[in-house]
RidA family protein
Amino acid sequence: MKEVIYTDQAPAPIGPYSQAIKVNGFLFVSGQVAIDVAASGDIQAETRKVMENIGAILQAAGLDYSNIVKASIFVKDLNNFGAINEVYGSFFTSESGAPHHPARETVEVARLPRDVNVEISVIAVAV
């Protein structure tokens, strides 16, 4: 059975898609952006907001960052790779302090919705 996940703690979809879909123990989170923060030009603040949006959706599904098994990062300027990694990586520390990083790819793209600088989508699994 498929369940649509929605929270008002993350941006509402700007098109015909859901924030996330939960099916067979998997959660597929649509690409998240930080519309309000993007205009500031601070890639770390933008990345942090994107990850907080993802966290809100995970929470609405009864999951957290430790449930993420796969992430896709789309970025307008790959020169921001290090700054994005610094923030992104800070969201994946276990209670013991050891990192638990999901599988991932990072792709530079020509343009993103609403002219943001970074978009991240994830797949999580209830274990």
